[in-house]
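Worked example

This section walks through a single chain of length 100. The input is the sequence exactly as stored; nothing has been trimmed or padded.
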Amino acid sequence: MTGLALAAGVALAAVVVLLVALPFLREPATDDDRLDAPTRADEARLGLVEERDRALAALKELEFDHRTGKITDDDYHRELGPLRRSAAATLRALQDDAKE
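Given that input, the structure is written out below as tokens.
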């Protein structure tokens, strides 16, 4: 009789272990974690931010080239105005976009 009780206990333990482990053995159901596609407004703003960064980098490079003597004073002043206007226009566009 003890052999029968031992077999029943082992069977019961196996069933309990299986029931407890079953949720961990299943493939998890994941939620959709994809990012929403950017809207046209998001893309336009990103374009403005990239344009601003390019204009500011060009200004910084121009300043560096002028200080190191790679470009003359005349070239520096000729290129400075358009770059500043471009950067200012982009910054205004970003500011206007933020107000909306």
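What to look for: The mean pLDDT is 87.
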